User: Fold this.
Amino acid sequence: MIHLSRACELAPTFGGAHFALARIYRGIGKKEKAQQHLALYQKDKLGWPTLPDPLLADILALRNSSTDYLRRGIELAEQGQLKEAAEEHEAAVEIDPTLVQAHVNLIRLYGQLGEPSRAEEHYRAALEMAPHLAELHYNYGVLLNDRDPAGGAEAFRRALELKPNYAEAHNNYALFLMLSGKLDDAVRHYRMALEERPDYRAARFNLGRILVLQGQFDEAISHLRQTLLPKDDETPQFAYALGAAYARSGNRAEALRYMREARKKATALGQSALLASIERDLQNLENAPSPQ
Assistant:
């Protein structure tokens, strides 16, 4: 009985040992103990102790396919573990250098990790295999965006040629056009982004800003109001823009309401730079004479 008890301690799922121990306890009149071990046997009748096998572990590790590494890399990226995600993707392309999706993902990952030269390597590799993949050009555009805005815009334009309903590419291309002063073209691309993704806050926010500049206040306000939810770190900025739009439209009461709301939220979040701008505009608005 001592050996069976020890076996059950070392291997709690060892069904056969629990069954044998239950019979012994029943034979000596310890029914409660017998029932406990019988219940454990019923839970895992085929359970059997296993011994560590380093060789088997190595063999199983070798059975990992490139798609296994890719899947794990995507999961890690979604969890924000970018370095580990890149390592899994690199393992995938080491097994299968023709795995285009791994190369495409690595462009984005290395861009986020601040390693543009490594991102470029994977862009070149993917470009040879899949030049007509829209996501490839989009990720490359994001990589170029800060250091070469014109190059980034060209990559977004190429992505849109291949996939005309690519909401993210429309949004990023529209931002380049907006900053270049091509407001009508930017509006057109922001609208196309929103056709595909009505919940695209960044596109709706920038569209609203342009419409304010163009004097289309009612539509601008409609778009900006839709950016207030969900409530997060960006909400103070959006509330501030809505207040400014109301101010430009001549609605002082609503302008004060949303600017004060923006001030409250920015204060709570410690957004000092934004808060300074809000305070300045709010003070000017509060001190301005009321319309007669």
